[in-house]
């Protein structure tokens, strides 16, 4: 095992720690780690990220369920349009994206570059969400019509499919505002959706990509160990402060990715 591979597995542990400590952000670390440190193509990296985040979220769902913080009925109902969109994105949309998206003079926007820049934009939005001091979202007195939830699920699912992210930071407010679920339970319930979306999206990738199973399973197992450790450490660390600090880190990472891709 060379130094780069050792650093990659250390990164996997950190991914798990972050998920265990703040309940999100796994893909924000996984994709850049796979692309810039381990040298994977962005399409492969987003596929691997879906598996890592999906498996990790499954563990997180179990832990939240033990605390009574998961609404399975709402989570499963909400996940349907999302996982359809994720699967179709990974099976048809991502493979169908042309290798060259834009060509202006000497500048060429490749498929990989486009995916990473789009990923960085989502990271910027996530970082602002984590840094901003917001009051807890209030539960609405009546839920939104399901057809609107269906459309919203399709949109988030498509984003999840393209960038290989779990999308938890988008699902939580949707569950609070539209499904009338309290914030703490919304966080746990979102993990069901993230699990289903990510793993079904990965199934779409298995049909179009060659997967290095030994590496992926090892990386994932280390991340799961990190989650267990992170959940334990979360008892001793202030969640809000940690989330804000991680938000600034994500902001720096997003700017770095944009710089790296456009330089």
Describe the structure.
The chain is mostly helical. It has one domain. The protein has ten helices and two strands. The chain has helices at 3-22, 26-37, 42-66, 72-96, 111-131, 146-163, 168-179, 183-206, 213-233, 239-262; strands spanning 100-104, 107-110. Strands 1-2 form a two-stranded antiparallel ribbon. Strand 1 and strand 2 (107-110) form a beta hairpin. The radius of gyration is 18 Å and the shape is globular. The model has no long low-confidence stretch (mean pLDDT 81). Keywords: Cell membrane, Membrane, Transmembrane, Transmembrane helix. Its main location: membrane. One of its GO terms (cellular component) is plasma membrane. InterPro entries: TM_pro_TauE-like, TSUP/Inactive_protease-like. It is a multi-pass membrane protein.
Features:
10 helices, TM_pro_TauE-like, mainly alpha
Q: Which helices and strands occur, and which strands form pairs?
A:
Elements: H1 3-22, H2 26-37, H3 42-66, H4 72-96, E1 100-104, E2 107-110, H5 111-131, H6 146-163, H7 168-179, H8 183-206, H9 213-233, H10 239-262
Antiparallel strand pairs: 1-2
Stretches with pLDDT under 50, minimum 5 residues = none
How many strands, which pairing sense, and closed or not: the largest β-sheet? 2 strands, antiparallel
Instruction: Tell the overall outline.
Output: globular
Please give the count of helices. Answer: 10
- Please compute the radius of gyration using only Cα atoms: 18 Å
What fraction, in percent, of the residue positions are helical?
Answer: over 70%
**Main sheet: strand order:** 1-2
Counted up, domains total 1
Beta percentage is under 5%
Transmembrane segments: 7-37, 43-62, 74-93, 113-132, 153-181, 187-206, 213-233, 245-262
Keywords: Cell membrane, Membrane, Transmembrane, Transmembrane helix
Subcellular location: Cell membrane; Membrane
Membrane topology: Multi-pass membrane protein
């Amino acid at each position: 095992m060379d130094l780069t591979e050792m650093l990659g597995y250390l990164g996997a542990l950190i991914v798990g720690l972050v998920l265990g400590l703040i309940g999100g952000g796994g893909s924000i670390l996984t994709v850049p780690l796979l692309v810039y440190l381990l040298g994977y193509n962005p399409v492969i990296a987003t596929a691997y990220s879906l598996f890592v985040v999906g498996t990790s979220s499954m563990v997180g769902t179990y832990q939240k369920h033990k605390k009574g913080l998961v609404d399975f009925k709402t989570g499963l109902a909400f996940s349907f349009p999302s996982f359809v969109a994720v699967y179709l994105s990974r099976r048809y949309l991502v493979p169908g994206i042309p290798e060259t998206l834009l060509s202006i003079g000497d500048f060429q926007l490749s498929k990989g570059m486009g995916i990473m820049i789009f990923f960085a934009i989502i990271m910027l939005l996530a970082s602002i969400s984590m840094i901003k001091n917001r009051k807890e979202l209030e539960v609405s007195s009546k839920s939104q019509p399901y057809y609107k939830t269906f459309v919203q699920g399709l949109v988030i699912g498509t984003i999840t499919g393209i960038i290989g992210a779990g999308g938890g930071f988008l699902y939580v407010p949707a569950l609070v505002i539209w499904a009338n679920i309290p914030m703490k339970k919304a966080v746990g319930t979102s993990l069901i959706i993230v699990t289903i979306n990510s793993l079904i999206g990965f199934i779409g990738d298995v049909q179009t990509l060659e997967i290095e199973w030994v590496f992926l399973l090892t990386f994932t197992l280390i991340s799961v160990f990190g989650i267990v450790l992170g959940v334990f450490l979360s008892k001793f660390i202030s969640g809000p402060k940690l989330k804000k600090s991680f938000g600034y880190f994500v902001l720096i990472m997003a700017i770095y990715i944009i710089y790296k891709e456009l330089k």
